[in-house]
Structure formats: structure tokens, C-alpha cells
Design a protein that fits this description.
The protein contains 6 helices and 8 strands, in the order E-E-H-E-E-H-H-E-E-H-E-E-H-H. The protein is α+β, with helices and mostly antiparallel strands and about 160 residues long. It has one domain: Transcriptional regulator MraZ domain (Chemotaxis protein chec, 3-Layer(aba) Sandwich), CATH 3.40.1550. The strands form 2 sheets. Strands 1-7-8-4-3-5 form a 6-stranded antiparallel beta sheet. A two-stranded antiparallel ribbon has the order 2-6. A hairpin with a 5-residue loop joins strand 3 and strand 4. The longest helix has 12 residues, at about 60-70. The radius of gyration is 18 Å and the shape is globular.
Length: about 160
């Protein structure tokens, strides 16, 4: 699953945000219920590696969970990573208005209040406060070129 896009969204007073239609169209939906209810989407949200939240479509989360279950839990670093990765994790399902409810401790962790920015990257969606996102996204084009050279290996044969 390769999600793309950047989406500014608003949160209501309960901490709900509506997932943009352009983003939802990239996801597989669960079939509508037998009583005619709308299709829904399942996710798991947790704390991101930076000061953001990470929203995983359920199939992506299940793949990661399967990999984590193969780690040796007798290794203290593995246990610490598994515990940290699951810290704050919470299952979510969209409601009939395509909204998800984010828990207050997660919103507090990411510094999100009334607005957020969703960044779809790879198989996940990062949820940022606008301020933190602007800070993270502000980079020097030369630094980006250096980073691309390091990450992509500087190989002339690799095309983006």
C-alpha cells in the first residue's frame, strides 16, 4: 500500500477529525453492513517516532504486528522496542461521517489541538500539529539533496 498526499484537517471539540475523501479513496474499505450502513475503515493509531501520531490502516498494522511477534522477547532491547511501539496504540474505525476519534493523551503527546496536518507516506498516515509539521517540513533544498544522496546511495542509475 502506497499512500500519498498532504491534507490539512480540523478537529472538533471531542478530538474527532474527518479523513479526506482523496485519502480514503486510496484505502480498502470494509464492506457495507447488511442493514445498509456505510462502508468503514479500520486503523490503529500510535505515537510516531517524532512528535506526531501514526495512523496505520489495519492491514498494514497487522503486517507490522506479525513482524514484531517474531522478535525474541527474551532480548531486553526487543522488549523495550515492542513496548514502546505499542505505547498509546489504539484501534479506530471511521464513523458514518468518515471521522476518527483521537484519544486525548495522544493529542497531548503530538501537541494537536484544533487543527492537524495529515501526511500520507508509504503505508501509513502521520498526524502532525501544524506548527510541528511546518518545523519538520522546513528544510534547505541543499540539505535535501545531500540527504537524497546519502539515502539513495548517490547512484546515477536510481531515478526518482
Amino acid at each position: 500500500m502506497q499512500l500519498i498526499g498532504e491534507y490539512p484537517v480540523a478537529l472538533d471539540e471531542k478530538g474527532r477529525l474527518r479523513l479526506p475523501t482523496a485519502l480514503l479513496r486510496q484505502l480498502p474499505a470494509h464492506a457495507a453492513g447488511s442493514n445498509g450502513e456505510a462502508a468503514s475503515y479500520e486503523f490503529v493509531v500510535n505515537r510516531g517516532f517524532e512528535k506526531c501520531l501514526t495512523l496505520y490502516p489495519k492491514p498494514v498494522w497487522d503486517g507490522i504486528a506479525a513482524k514484531l511477534s517474531r522478535l525474541n522477547s527474551f532480548n531486553d532491547r526487543n522488549r523495550a522496542f515492542i513496548r514502546s511501539f505499542h505505547y498509546g496504540a489504539y484501534p479506530l474505525t471511521t464513523d458514518s461521517a468518515d471521522r476518527i476519534l483521537l484519544q486525548k493523551p495522544l493529542l497531548d503527546y503530538a501537541g494537536i489541538a484544533k487543527e492537524a496536518v495529515l501526511l500520507a507516506v508509504g503505508g501509513k498516515i502521520e498526524i502532525w500539529s501544524p506548527e510541528q509539521y511546518a518545523s519538520t517540513a522546513a528544510f534547505d533544498p541543499n540539505e535535501f539533496a545531500d540527504l537524497a544522496n546519502t539515502v539513495m546511495g548517490g547512484d546515477d542509475e536510481i531515478e526518482l
